Amino acid sequence: MGRPGFLWAIPATLFFLLFAITPLIMVAGLSFTSWSGLGSPRFVGLDNWTRVFADPVMINSVWLSLLVTFLGVAIQTPLSVLLGVWAAGQQRNRAVLSAIYFIPLLLSTTAVSVLWRAVLDPNFGVPSRVTWLFGDGNLFGSQAGAIGVLAFVSTWQFTPFHTLIHQGAARAVPRVLYEAAEIDGAGRVRQFFHITLPQLRNSLITSTILMVVGGLTTFETVLILTQGGPGTDTTITAYYMYQKAFKGFDFGAGAAVALVLVVAATLVSLIVVRVSGYDRMRSEMEGVS
Q1: Class assignment of domain 65-231?
Q2: Which Pfam families match (predicted)?
Q3: I need a labelling partner for 133 at 20 to 30 A (CA). Which of 16, 64, 246, 262 fits?
């Protein structure tokens, strides 16, 4: 039996064109107009782009988005790798503990954000009771504290997802490699760094790309936890777009910001793909035999 023909790709291609490319083209066109949501859009040329890039809040939002994304990758990657390798083992009660750990993955981002907003509330939450650890208890009152909360909540919710990716990859590592390493006298630590970690290369690249795209497009967590505050200290690009379009009723400027976000996420993802060699990955079982 040969490989599937082009006809198999037509439904997915049409779906992608209809729900991805077409809206993107419409947003690009809207970015050159002035529209408050009522009436007809009015063409204004590059006015929206000029105003957006002249706004220091917009420039700062890009750096904040990159910072939040970097923190997500730096924290979630080692945690998910270690937990994934552990979950792939045969420890006692591993299945039960893994199921409990994966519960955050089943919750929506909105539900998770509401939950942690209540838990970390400076008036009646945990920080107000543990002042020796949290000081005045207002984690949302400083930029460092607010960004720390965003990184923590994202880690709590999404690390299980990336753990699942690494768990599957770790289970696919041939057992014979570990047996050979044991014969050569390699301990668990050396086996992890010289066998497991290299074998997880492809899953690490996939996980990183997903973290990058997810980090750059984070929105609900900021909306519910910090509302971009204090001040504009956590106003990332996605939230800035929301403020422009849905709070300021300036949909033209909001569309311009959205397009910047799409281009930035695409460029960063392409850089990761090229640098990591993801585009040259090959499966050992390609196609249909």
Answers
A1: mainly alpha
A2: BPD_transp_1
A3: 64
Q: Is the dihedral of CA 44, 46, 49, 52 positive or negative?
A: negative
What's the predicted TM-score (pTM) here? 0.88
Q: How many residues does the chain have?
A: 289
pLDDT tens, residue by residue, 181-224: 999 898 989 999 999 999 998 899 899 989 998 999 999 999 99
User: Can you read off the two tokens belonging to residue 67?
Assistant: 């910072």
- How far is 117 from 104, CA to CA, in rounded Å? 15
**Residue 183: exposure state from Cβ atoms within 10 A (0-12, 13-18, ≥19):** exposed
Placement of tokens 């994202």 in the chain? 154
Largest CA distance in the chain: 76
Closest CA to 162 of 197, 207, 195: 207
- Is 158 within 8 Å of 106 (Cβ atoms)? no
Task: Report cis status (omega within 30 of 0) of the bond before 230.
Answer: yes
State both tokens at 233: 């200290």
Q: What is the dihedral of CA 173, 176, 182, 187, to 10 degrees?
A: 0
Residue 68: closest CA among 237, 287, 196: 237
Q: How far apart are CA 211 and CA 69, in angstroms?
A: 7
Domain boundaries, the chain: 65-231
> DSSP labels for 36-85?
-SSS--EE-TTHHHHHHHH-HHHHHHHHHHHHHHHHHHHHHHHHHHHHHH
Q: What is the 8-class DSSP label of residue 200? A: T
Crossing angle for the helix pair 94-101 and 56-87, nearest 10 degrees? 170
* DSSP tag of 120: T
pLDDT 10s digits, 63-114 = 999 999 999 999 999 999 999 998 888 777 777 887 888 888 889 999 999 9
What is the residue type of 163?
T
